[in-house]
Amino acid sequence: MTFHRVHIDIIPDLPDRFDLLFRSYSQIKGRMLTNLPLRLLLLLLVLTFVSGSSAATPPSSLVVSACAQASYPSVCVRTLATSSPSTPSDLALAATSASLSATRGAAAYLRHLTLPQAPSDRAAFRDCANLLPDAADQLARAAKELARLNPDTLRSQLGDAQTWASAAMTDQDMCLREITGLSGRTRDAVVARVTEASHVTSNALYFITRVAATRDRNR
């Protein structure tokens, strides 16, 4: 018999599925359903749970092997698990797109945040919030360039993409520095989101740099 290991980090709704399973069991028990044996009902629930979990798309072998050398391997696999890259440039584009999505998400969170009352704290959060849209713009430019790579202009295009991704990381790091000295749950939530975006961007920059290095070696 072959057992397949389920990677928890690529099934983000796993806790919700467990919660649904046990809530469903409670409902069945509470209603005292007698038309079907309880064991059969529970088996049906478990089968539903397992089939839903198996629907999660595992990362491709290319993603797993490429992410092994990235700055943040587990973040890399998780954010690229649903992508289907076939070349190193595809990986660079997918990673940059994931970085753009994470950065926009962090920016949106900050934009709708209720700021602290202390003037210095409010200023720190505002400075951080002003940096993230610029980071997103830089990543959007990088993704656009990576989506239209041309053999005749490949070197300059990759150089531009590296510059923009690096600038985005600088914005993200500056945002984190602005709020490092603060405390509280709001600060922790912002740090978690911006740190995630920064890690994804670092991975994207790694893939862009790798494509550029491969191109230079093949000249």
Name the descriptors.
2 domains, Butyryl-CoA Dehydrogenase, subunit A, domain 3, 74% helix, elongated, disordered N terminus, 8 helices
Task: Please mark out the parts with pLDDT under 50 across 5 or more consecutive residues, or reply none.
Answer: 1-22, 24-36, 39-55
SS-based structural class?
mainly alpha
Strand % is under 5%
| N→C terminal distance | 50 Å
Overall pLDDT metric:
79
Question: What does this protein look like?
Answer:
The protein is 74% helix and 0% strand. The model is unreliable at 1-22, 24-36 and 39-55 (pLDDT under 50). It contains eight helices and no strands. It has two domains: 8-54, no CATH class; 61-217, Butyryl-CoA Dehydrogenase, subunit A, domain 3 (Up-down Bundle). With 219 residues, the protein is mostly helical. Helix 1 (14-31) packs antiparallel against helix 2, helix 4 crosses helix 8 and helix 5 packs antiparallel against helix 6.
What is the topology?
Blueprint: H1 14-31, H2 38-54, H3 61-67, H4 73-80, H5 88-111, H6 119-146, H7 154-179, H8 185-217
